[in-house]
Each structure stands twice: as structure tokens, then as C-alpha cells.
Amino acid sequence: MAKKVSFDYDxxxxxxxxxGSAAATLAARAGKKVAIIEADTFGGDSPNWSDxxxxxxxxxxxxxxxxxxxxxxxLRSSTLGYNYPSLxxxxxxxxxxxxxxxxxxxxxxxGITTFVGVAHFLxxxxxxxxxxxxxxxxxxxxxxxxxxxPNIQGLKDVSYLTPRTLLEAxxxxxxxxxxxxxxxGVEIAxxxxxxxxxxxxxxxxxxxxxxxxxxxxxxxxxxxxxxxxVTSLTQTRTLAVVKDGIGKRVTYNRGGVEKSIKVDxxxxxxxxxxxxxxxxxxxxxxxxxxxxxxNNHLQTSARHIFAAGDVLGxxxxxxxxxxESQVAAHNLIHPKSxxxxxxxxxxxxxxxxxxxxxVGLSEDDCLKRDLPINKAVAPLNIIAxxxxxxxxxxxVKIITDKKGVILGATIVAPHASEMIHELALAVKxxxxxxxxxxxxxxxxxxxxxxxxxxARLAN
Amino acid sequence: MAGKAIDIIKxxxxxxxxxxxxxxLHASIRAACLSVRSPEGVAESTATQVCDAVxxxxxxxxxxxxxxxxxxxxxxxxxxxxxxxxxxKHHRFVI
Lengths: 459, 95
Description:
The complex is a heterodimer.
Chain A: E1 9-14, H1 18-29, E2 34-38, H2 45-48, H3 51-68, H4 84-98, H5 104-109, E3 113-116, E4 119-123, E5 126-129, E6 132-141, E7 145-147, H6 163-166, E8 175-179, H7 183-194, E9 198-202, H8 214-228, E10 231-233, E11 236-244, E12 247-254, E13 257-263, E14 265-268, E15 272-274, E16 287-288, E17 291-292, E18 305-307, H9 318-333, E19 348-350, E20 355-360, H10 363-368, E21 373-379, H11 384-388, E22 395-401, E23 406-413, H12 416-428, H13 433-437, H14 448-457
Parallel strand pairs in A: 1-2, 1-6, 2-3, 6-18, 8-9, 8-14, 9-10
Antiparallel strand pairs in A: 4-5, 5-6, 7-15, 11-12, 12-13, 16-17, 19-20, 20-23, 21-22, 22-23
Helix pairs in contact in A: 1-9, 3-4, 3-7
Chain B: E1 7-10, E2 15-19, H1 22-35, H2 40-58, E3 63-65, H3 66-80, H4 82-94
Parallel strand pairs in B: 1-3
Antiparallel strand pairs in B: 1-2
Helix pairs in contact in B: 1-2, 1-4, 2-3, 3-4
């Protein structure tokens, strides 16, 4: 009989963010011997450097903005102001309160051994962390991703901001040129504009939020321009950045015309690249600079090594990484009954005001797949709540197949991130527009717009 | 030499580890360039640039395998001298 090989750990998790933490905890609770390795701050990017701090600041900014415009409700707000160091302190408090940020003790209480350092595969079953060699029966790679600067002339020679470094700034810049108008780009544009920064938002695509439906980008561009004074530079290619005094001069090409502007700071929000520099070749894990290739069970080309989260190179959210982490944990705890991650009802959120949320297929997705669809749009101004809140910029859009089964939906409204889950449930369980329209929706809730849109498709 | 000690694990640990030596890498890159008839000055400057790139990559890593160093050096050498890079990558099998 062959001798059974023993390893230091049943599971070694590389990365303690959303992609790694759930799997480590689930495996430890299932009685597995687990180690977790973190190169930066325990908890990963979301609670420490992206989602939580950004949303904490956005919440404060939106309160400030609503109060500033409260005169129409009879509120006196002429003396309203803000103190940026106090806002930063609030952001730090929000990060601390999540409990995930920097919380190494949490893992140790769960019986998980923790290591701080950069992990590097030496062989398929062995990893090095600060010269310490760990062996594992299974591995989960959840190293996430980092912001990457596009190839723009002169950018490497000037100091530029990323969404992570911007949060550490002592005060908002007077003017800011943002390259990339995806989710993070527009969130930061609105945040900084509320605090008085003159924002230029450059996007190579023909609209803001190019991954959402066209009307979303068009509406948000109008809202940002009219209410926040943001200059949207769609169809714009940024050509060069050079230092100009204490600021920077940015040269861009828009519609064949070359222009330049002087700004205080430049922020890069064009995209993130997976962290794959961890000796994957030594472990025979197939990957490209765009991410690690996995099968439906999230196994890499080396079957005992799983991967989850941003390192897969997909356009991922924290909740997607958590889902993948749970699936990876299940598959390594129960190898005989493996499951696949189900992405059909994963919502995509943008925390602007109005908020943007979408689930399932977009209209563009349906066009690309040549799917016959019906669609209905309910503008917010037709429901009673828009009158009592004096807010009209937004809509609910629902897409169904010819039988009325809901395929996807987009919401642009205050509290869109809460409203979308009703439609996510409909997408996941194949409900029809009639099912949603027939469900009572409370009077004076924003969700009435969902009922109206569904009712237009119900017959 | 790099600013800090970096351990190189040889042949998946089948041979004793040793510290990273810039001179050794430099000599091997230079030899690969000379083998494809590069002028001596070109070989020398290419080797210097490749060594610099490898050392930058090693900055955050206290321990890597010899295969990692070879792969990283090949990646860098490819942009300067593709022919030498091919020889450097495959010389064990070629010889």
C-alpha cells in the first residue's frame, strides 16, 4: 500500500480578503487544519481600502449635499460646512467597526494559523512565506487585484492618485482629472465634486459606465454635469501627463481635437490587474496576466489548488468573491459533491446618488446574444415618492423574454442597492413580470417603480 | 549583489539553497548573448539591464526558486535579445 503523504495543513489560503476569509473560516469549522497568509492588511482590500472607506465617505458626502440643497424644504443650510480631517476620522471609525479590517485575532480564534508575508510557490504542494516553508494538501489563491496605470506618456514620471491613495489625502484637491468612468471612477467623481473639487471625468467609451445600459450612462452624465459641475469627457483618450508647477498638465484627444488642461491631481481608475506573481509556474497553475484560469468548480489547472475572487480576472464585486470563496470551501470539504458558483443573480452596484444597480442580463447582453426580449421602463417621476422626496432623476427598467420571464433589470434611484434584490430573486428563480406586478408594493416606497415597470410587461 | 540576502532554492530543493549572486546571473546572461554572436559591449550592457530587472522583481521576495530567476531573466532578455533569450531558456535541452 502506498504511504500516505502528510502535509502541514489541509488548506493554505493565500489572501485574507473576501475571496479567502470565508473559505478559511468554513474549512476550519469543518475540522480542517487551515493556514491563512496575508501580504498587506488582514481583511483585504474591501474593508480597509476600497468598499468600506469609500462608502463611509460617500454617505457623509451625500448627507452634506442633501442638507445643502434643503432650502426647498424650508431648511436653513447657508452656514453648513465640513471638516475634512473629521470626515477622515469618521472613515477610519467605519473601517474599524467592520471588524474585518486588520483583524488577525479573528482567524486565530477560529483556530486558523496566520502568517504575514508574501507567499511564493516552490512546488505544487509547498509555499514559502518569509523563508518559512509550508506544505498543504489544498491551496486557495485569493490574492485579489491592484490598480494598474494605463500606458500614458509621462504618467510614470509624475505622482498620480489611485482610489486607494486618494482616501489618504489630507484634503480634497482643487481640481482632479479622473481617467476611467467605471463604477469607482463615477463614485469618486461625485464624492470629490460634492466636496468642492472641479472634476474632469475622462472615459474612452462613448458614455459613462460603459458596462451598464446606455440610458444609465446618459442619465448619470447629466446628473453629474448639472448638479455637481463635473465635466464629462467621453470618447476621450488621455495622451500625456506632465508636471506643471505644483500641478499637472493633462493632454487628451477628444473627437480628433487635442486639448490640454491643468489640474492639481490625476487619478487612475481604469482598471485592476490580478496579483499573479506568486511563483504559479512552480505549482503548474495555468494563468495569464489577466487572471488565473479555473474550471466550473474553481479548480486551477493543478486540481488541488483553487482560486477565487479578483485573481480570476473577472469584473468582480466583494459579494461575488464571497460566493466563490464559499463554493471553493464546499468543493474542497466535499470533493465528491462539487458545486458551481451561480452568478445569474449577482447584482452590480454603483453607490452614487441616485444609486445604480443591475442584475441579470442587460439590454446590450441580450442584443449580443440575439435574444428576443420585451422591455419596460418606469421613470421615477410617475410614482408618488418622487413627489414627496422632490427627486425625479431615475428609472426602473425590466427585461423579459417573450414568455414574460424576467431576464434582467436595472434600477437608477435612491436606495437602488436595496431595491435590486427583489428583482435578483425574480431572475434567480425565473419569476415572470406578472408575478412581480401582482405582489403588493407599499405606497410611497421607491419600489413602487418596480411594480409599475413589471405591470407594463405583465400582459 | 542585491541589497538584501535572497535565498535561491535549487532544483526544487534537491540541491542545497544558496544566496542570490548577481555576478553569477550576469555571467550566464552575458554568455548567452556571446553565444549568439552579440558584440561584447552589447552582451555586457544587456546582462546589466537584465540583472537590474531581476533584482527589482526580487525586491519583495526573500526566497525564490532557481527556475523563477531563470524565467524572469528570460522574460527580460526577450525584450533585448530574443535569440539569446531562446538559448538561455533552452540551453539545458539544446546542449
